[in-house]
User: Which sequence fits this backbone?
């Protein structure tokens, strides 16, 4: 049900709803002796007033956050074709699994014997990921894809260091996700960029010219961010391996090939997977995700410690192995985003190997279908190769009407659709990067194609309609320059 | 659909991928199953976890009650199934809640600027250290040995590739407090302490801030956020960057994840902050709204020169924390802290009477403390107590350099009966070990 009253009504912050003395919480009655706080904490600097958290009754609290949700788009609300994000349906069975009290109440420092269920689930998930990637061993600690990238690169660093080989360069394509070069910096490497060729694939000849004995590794997404499969991947792997470098697979686009083609078979040495993309765990407004890393046998000794090991027995038992002398060390304070990982396991069990192969095929089918339905409206940026799970349109044509592709996106909102990823990859002028995913119906794809055609048509006939869009949302276009210039980053009573 | 594309079979969509890259044999994976079967299988697997344990374990994960309203809000599909708010007009809900989260983190930390979340407390310390190195253009870190071991290990993992050296600040083995150095070298970027520290002991933040500042270094404090229901905020005591883990703020245990990291700092350092930051602005009609701001720091724009590589963070956990803190309110926060303090001190009083067991430190503590057991095999005692239905831990290194200590924590949920039961279980185990 829509929010009553005008859509554009300003929703007060929870602080503005606060009234002295109201509260939602109540604490259990204590049956232990009362204490003299001042005496117990003698000499400690105590708070002279409490942090100004809101004071609000439970009903008003529920209403506030419910109204917040009503001002937000999600997959449950409608189509969400963000390229490279795999915004597919998040099956609710995963919520039931994660909510099982036995999983939820497990303490991270409980003795291994008390958490055999959780350890067994995590161990089984690792086996799935090892088989799906064609690699050797996994770590479930990384909390998101970017932390997975960092771990993968630290494995590459540790591998070279262990061999006494001083290498400081990571090569990334000009079409790479921004996290790739940022992770390379975080892992202490220099980034060198390899250009894409005219067809949108990485220029393997240029790569051959770039590699040398400083090359620690190459980071690659395959299919790449244009949605194109890197056909020369075997040759590129050879080029990098020949100079002693390693290959890193950015799993953001794994949804295109899961169950069909494996990074290990393509020559990659280490991968991260985004379980919130390929394995449909909820994106949660920007996390929590999880970014498990799977590595080759040569890199496995360097994986974050501890690792889970299985001991044979009538009933197999599982334990953490902390004795990992070559490990790069910890990256998570506990064991990673376990609640997210068990959701991913439930997705894998539900689909099975065959189901995953059919999932990726449908994702590619939907993308090809939608590409065929939209290329009369805007051209494919790189039509030389067939798209996989996503495709990129070039929106520069709207410029002749004094518009940007951002204006098309905002008009799409008024037509009932969340816009695709825009202005990425950076190598495409006015890019629209569209990933429909396998869970959408042809009717939805047809409707989106029609809306895009309408918006582009209106760009010529009525450009102000796009320039003023959106008009149907709780707020209109926002002044981002003011936000960055004046920096109001918290609510204040006097603001 | 295949017809539209001129294909006969789904496999045709992959025909351009070289045959040599395909697996030579079918993948060794089980077939798919129904929802009913999967829920059944995983429920049986989960049942291998002990669910009857009474929790006195701590080490950064505390058994605080999570009210039903937290779950109710998190299951709203519009929040659960949304992503990073790249299109602010259709993401005002997430953006406003993150703005409220930032405000509450500012309140708990005592600093004016906070980000929209990091992965967890440990990586937040590592991000803060990188930030301090960038601000001071120095590359040495001094870290209290009383900081929990996982956090020190994460900091080492993140620091190693940059050649940042990490020196330890010693622990006073009587009080359990970090020794205040009178001489921080003038090439140190930051001093890192935690509040309370990894042994549960309350640190003198003001003194550490003075020592750090005298050398031109920043003070980073890893804060257990419920502590400020009693203690002065680290920001008010001179901390420059306050980070921490929001596990205690409505996340539940969940085997330690997902949880939420937070980071707050002075306004001067806002442009060095890692990760997403939400700011208030107005739309073209002048109406208030929210956007992700300071975007030019971030990886998708700044690439190799970004302040951090973080992209997806822990937004839904930040939503949970915001709901929980709203549920608590200032009075609830106070009662939570005092309620945990009472039960923890009652537990300590009873445990101190157990033959041979001693409290490891004399320093003041809130909801967690360390004990020294009269046993060589501490893990066996902890395992035995667990068999008897009580969870204590983690086992940590004794700063005297000899043996181990065990952490014990009590939240507002523990009762006198729980405490009596724990004492009996420990007595039994220690007797068995003799």
Assistant:
């Amino acid at each position: 049900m829509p929010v009553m009253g005008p859509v554009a009504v300003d929703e007060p912050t929870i602080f503005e709803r606060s009234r002295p003395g109201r509260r939602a919480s109540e604490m259990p009655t204590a049956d232990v002796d009362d204490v003299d706080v001042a005496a117990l904490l003698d000499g400690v600097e105590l708070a002279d007033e409490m942090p100004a958290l809101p004071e609000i009754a439970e009903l008003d609290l529920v209403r506030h956050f419910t109204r917040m949700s009503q001002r937000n788009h999600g997959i449950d609300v409608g189509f969400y074709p963000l390229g490279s994000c795999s915004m597919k349906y998040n099956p609710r069975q995963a919520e039931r699994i994660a909510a099982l009290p036995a999983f939820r109440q497990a303490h991270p420092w409980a003795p291994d014997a008390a958490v055999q269920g959780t350890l067994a689930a995590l161990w089984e998930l690792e086996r799935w990921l090892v088989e799906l990637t064609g690699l050797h061993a996994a770590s479930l600690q990384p909390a998101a894809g970017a932390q997975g990238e960092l771990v993968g690169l630290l494995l590459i660093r540790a591998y070279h260091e262990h061999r006494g080989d001083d290498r400081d360069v990571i090569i990334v394509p000009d079409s790479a996700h921004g996290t790739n070069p940022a992770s390379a910096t975080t892992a202490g490497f220099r980034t060198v960029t390899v250009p894409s060729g005219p067809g949108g694939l990485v220029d393997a000849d240029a790569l051959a010219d770039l590699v040398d004995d400083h090359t620690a590794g190459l980071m690659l997404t395959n299919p790449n961010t244009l949605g194109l499969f890197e056909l020369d991947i075997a040759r590129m792997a050879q080029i990098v391996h020949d100079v002693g470098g390693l290959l890193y697979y950015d799993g953001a686009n794994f949804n295109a090939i899961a169950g069909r083609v494996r990074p290990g078979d393509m020559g990659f040495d280490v991968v991260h997977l985004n379980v919130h993309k390929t394995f449909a765990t909820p994106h949660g407004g920007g996390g929590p995700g999880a970014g498990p890393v799977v590595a080759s046998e040569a890199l496995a000794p360097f994986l974050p410690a501890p690792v889970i090991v299985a001991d044979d027995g009538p009933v197999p038992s599982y334990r953490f192995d902390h004795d990992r002398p070559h490990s790069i060390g910890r990256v998570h304070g506990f064991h990673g985003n376990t609640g997210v990982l068990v959701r991913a396991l439930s997705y894998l069990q539900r689909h099975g190997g065959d189901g995953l192969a059919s999932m990726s095929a449908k994702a590619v089918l939907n993308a090809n279908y939608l590409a065929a339905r939209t290329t009369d409206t805007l051209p494919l940026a790189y039509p030389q190769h067939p798209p996989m799970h996503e495709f990129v349109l070039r929106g520069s044509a709207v410029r002749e009407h004094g518009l940007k592709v951002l204006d098309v996106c905002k008009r799409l909102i008024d037509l009932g659709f969340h816009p695709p990823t825009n202005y990425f990859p950076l190598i495409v002028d006015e890019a629209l990067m569209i990933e429909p995913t396998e869970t959408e119906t042809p009717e939805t794809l047809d409707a989106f194609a029609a809306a895009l055609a309408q918006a582009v048509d209106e760009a010529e006939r009525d450009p102000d309609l796009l320039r003023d869009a959106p008009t149907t949302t709780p707020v209109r276009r926002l002044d981002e320059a003011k936000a960055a210039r004046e920096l109001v980053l918290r609510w204040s009573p006097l603001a | 659909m295949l017809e539209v594309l001129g294909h006969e079979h789904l496999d045709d969509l992959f025909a351009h991928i070289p045959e040599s890259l395909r697996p030579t044999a079918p993948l060794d994976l089980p077939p798919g199953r129904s929802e009913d079967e999967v829920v059944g299988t995983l429920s049986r697997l989960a049942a291998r976890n002990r669910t009857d344990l009474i929790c006195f374990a701590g080490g950064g994960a505390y058994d605080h009650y999570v009210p039903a309203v937290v779950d109710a809000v998190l299951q709203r599909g519009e929040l659960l199934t949304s992503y990073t708010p790249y299109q602010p007009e259709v993401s005002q809900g997430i953006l406003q809640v993150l703005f409220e989260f930032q405000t509450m983190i500012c309140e708990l930390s005592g600093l004016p600027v906070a980000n929209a979340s990091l992965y967890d407390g440990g990586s937040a310390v590592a991000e803060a250290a990188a930030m301090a190195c960038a601000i001071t253009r120095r590359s040495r870190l001094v870290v209290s040995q009383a900081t929990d071991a996982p956090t020190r290990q994460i900091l080492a993992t993140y620091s190693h590739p940059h050649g940042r050296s990490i020196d330890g600040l010693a622990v006073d083995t009587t009080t359990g407090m970090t020794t205040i150095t009178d001489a921080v070298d003038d090439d140190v970027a930051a001093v890192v302490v935690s509040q309370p520290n990894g042994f549960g002991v309350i640190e003198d933040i003001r003194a550490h801030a003075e020592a750090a500042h005298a050398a031109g270094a920043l003070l980073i404090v890893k804060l257990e956020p419920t502590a400020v229901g009693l203690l002065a905020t680290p920001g008010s005591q001179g901390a420059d960057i306050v980070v921490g883990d929001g596990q205690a703020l409505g996340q539940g245990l969940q085997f330690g994840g997902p949880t939420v990291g937070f980071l707050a700092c002075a306004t001067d350092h806002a442009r060095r902050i890692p990760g997403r930051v939400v700011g208030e602005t107005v739309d073209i009609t002048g109406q208030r709204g929210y956007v992700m701001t300071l975007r030019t720091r971030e990886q998708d724009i700044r690439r190799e020169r970004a302040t951090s590589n973080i992209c997806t963070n822990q937004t839904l956990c930040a939503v949970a924390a915001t709901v929980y803190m709203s549920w608590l309110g200032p009075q609830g926060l106070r009662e939570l802290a005092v309620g945990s303090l009472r039960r923890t001190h009652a537990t300590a009083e009873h445990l101190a009477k157990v033959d041979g067991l001693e409290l490891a430190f004399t320093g003041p503590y809130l909801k967690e403390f360390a004990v020294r057991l009269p046993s060589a095999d501490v893990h066996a005692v902890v395992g035995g107590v667990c068999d008897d239905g009580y969870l204590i831990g983690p086992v940590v290194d004794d700063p005297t350099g000899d043996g181990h200590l065990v952490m014990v924590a009590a939240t507002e949920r523990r009762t006198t009966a729980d405490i009596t039961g724990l004492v009996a279980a420990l007595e039994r185990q220690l007797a068995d070990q003799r």
